[in-house]
Amino acid sequence: MTNNSIAETGQQYIMNTYGRFPISLVRGKGTYVWDADNKQYLDFVGGIAACSLGHSNENLIQVLTEQAKTLWHVSNLYWIEPQVQLAEKLTAATGMDKAFFCNSGAEANEAAIKLARKYFYGQNQSNKNEIITFKNSFHGRTLATVTATGQTKYQKGFAPLAPGFVYADYNDLPSVEAAVNENTAAILVEVIQGEGGVIPADISFLRGLRQLCDQNELLLIIDEVQTGVGRTGKFLACQLYGIKPDIVTLAKGLGGGIPIGACLAVDKVAAAFEPGNHASTFGGNPLVTAVACKVTEIVSKEGFLKQVEKMGDYLGEKLLALKDPRIVQFRSRGLIQGLEFEREVKDLVGICMKKGLLLVNAGPNVLRFVPPLTVNEIEINGAAAILKQALQEWE
Question: pTM (2 decimals)?
C-alpha cells in the first residue's frame, strides 16, 4: 500500500481523533524511519519521546523475541517474574519503594490521583481530596487526568469534568500557597511542561513545592511521563533538582515504544493501596515488563546518561546556531528541547517533513525535539541542516 491508499482507508475506518500527516511510517531503524513510499526521515519525534532506544533496537528485539516465545500474558492474580524484576530496577533508579504497573501515562497519573486520595482516606482525612495542578500542564486524556490538565482546549466538550482539582500558576510559588486549604491532598506537577511548550520548572519553585508539601503534610506527585527514563540526562528529571517526590509517574520511554506506564511511591503512601483498590488487566504483563527491564538496565547506566547529556548539549548548540530572528526563546534539558517562535510552527513542521525531518510542536508556537536517546552527532547535524533549509523557505 502507498501513503495515499493507507490514508484513504484509514479515514474510512478510524475515528478522527488525530490531525494526521499524510504519510504512513512502515519501517524504522535507530533514528531513521521510512514511509510506505520508501522515503527516509530523521525521526526527532520518537513516538513523542517514547522510542527511547530508537527503532528496532537489537537489545530490545532479543528480549521481546525470547519473552514472546515463553509467556505473553497472565493475570496479576499471580506473581510475574519480569514485573518483579522491573519494580526492583525502577525503585533502585528512582529512590521510590513500590511500583504499580499499567499501560500509559494517563493511567499512571490516574493511579497517582487515586493513591493520593486513598492515602488520606486511610488517615481518616477523607476531606483531603483536592489536588493542585498547574495551568498549561498536561496529564492525560481520561476524565480525571484531562481535568487535572490545566488547558481548557483539551477539556472542551467533556463536561461535567471530575471534581477535586484546583489550578495554580507554574513557576509561581505564591499562587500555590494561596491555593492550599484544608481540603488539599497533593500537588501534581511536571518538572518540564512538555505539551505546554517545553517549559522547565525553576529550581526554587520545585524545591519550594517540596517544602510546602512537607509543611502542610501534603503529597508531592511528579509527572515524569515525558521527562523520565533518562530524557534529561538523569533517570528522573527531578533528580536534576535534588527533589524526591512521594509519588512519581512514568510511561513513554519506559518501554522503548512498547506500551507501559508505572506509578511509583514511597512506602508510607504505597501502603494505602490494598487488594481490590486498583488494578489493570494488562498492566505489567510479562511481555512489556521484560522489555522495560532491558530499557531500564541500559538507560540507568551512568555512561549512557552522560552520553544523553552530551548529545543534549550538542543539539542545543546546533539549534542556538540557527540565529533565526523569529526565534523567541530556546529551552532545554537534555534531549527534550524547544524552540519558541513568534508565530505558529505548523507549516514549518510540514516543510521539515517534506525535506526528511520529523518534528512535532509543543503548543502552537514551539518546535519540540525529542529524538531517541541514542541519537548521535551525525544525525543531529543532519537534522540541523534540514531545519536551517526549512527556515529559509518558511514564510
Answer: 0.97
